[in-house]
Design brief:
Length: 269
């Protein structure tokens, strides 16, 4: 539990001393973007403080740290794809906490690997990622709201895991972008998934970022600001791994997922 690590780092230090790992992946995080606005202290503890502690003590036992970050470290105000070298400027609490997490990890261990990704989908025992939410709603004949003006690069989790392993094997360190090959707005992505899964796309309701902000604010009392253009480009990744060995297209990923369930339920079955 990352909150426990943030509050009692000595327990984690003792655990690492006992286990003596060679590699530590920080996959967990407080990723509910609007929830981070409601619980900023939790966001800081989980996304910022704990990763730095993990990297610090991992380095002491000779382990390499891999930390997963987000496209939300950018403001997404400009219609472009963002490079690792571009200036960061997060708009919301989640993005700010993840950026601070990056900085804490690299301060504790300059040889650590930071992987920024976005829109991760794929087999998930907890059934929480975007495609599970979408398919569950459509199968239940419920309206599913999707913004038409928020752009990103949906990323297949199986490919993300494979590429993470390759980067570690190549001794990579610092910040890398690892995302899908297609830039898509969330509404178009949802339509593409619905078509592949043969689910009723007419239940997918398009809305703008401004409408989404108002909708969430009315329900929660607050909402996170969101940039519109958050596509990432993997310049550093392309220097190490051929594009053909990187992340599959959306259709290729969905087909692979359908044929390789990895122990998790298929959202559209």
């Amino acid at each position: 539990n990352l909150e426990d690590i943030a509050s009692t780092p000595q327990m984690f230090e003792s655990f690492l001393e006992l286990m003596r790992p060679h590699l530590v992946y920080i996959c967990a995080g407080f990723t509910w973007v609007d929830g981070c606005e409601l619980e900023p202290h939790k966001s800081e503890a989980v996304n910022s403080i704990a990763p730095g502690i993990i990297a610090k003590y991992s380095r002491r036992v000779g382990a390499k740290t891999v930390f997963y970050s987000t496209d939300y470290v950018f403001d997404g105000k400009v219609d472009k794809v963002w490079l690792e070298s571009d200036e960061v400027n997060p708009l919301n609490t989640y993005g700010k906490s993840k950026l601070q997490g990056e900085q804490n990890v690299l301060t504790a261990d300059p040889s650590a690997l930071i992987i920024r990704t976005t829109g991760v989908f794929g087999p998930d025992a907890a059934g929480k990622n975007f495609i599970y939410q979408l398919c569950d709603a459509l199968k239940s004949k419920k309206i599913f709201k999707c913004p038409t003006d928020q752009f990103g690069a949906p990323t297949y989790s199986v490919d993300l895991a494979r590429i993470s392993k390759t980067l570690v094997e190549k001794g990579a360190s610092g910040v890398f972008h690892c995302v899908g090959s297609e830039i898509s707005d969330r509404y178009s992505f949802a339509l593409k998934v619905a078509e592949f899964c043969e689910l009723p796309s007419e239940l997918i309701l398009p809305l703008t970022t401004e409408q989404q902000f108002g909708d969430v604010t009315s329900r929660l009392g607050t909402a996170a600001l969101r940039g519109k253009y958050l596509g990432l480009q993997s310049i550093r990744l392309e220097a190490l791994i051929p594009r053909s060995d990187q992340v599959r297209s959306i259709e290729e990923a969905l087909k692979h997922w359908q044929d390789n369930l990895a122990g998790a339920r298929l959202p559209w079955s």
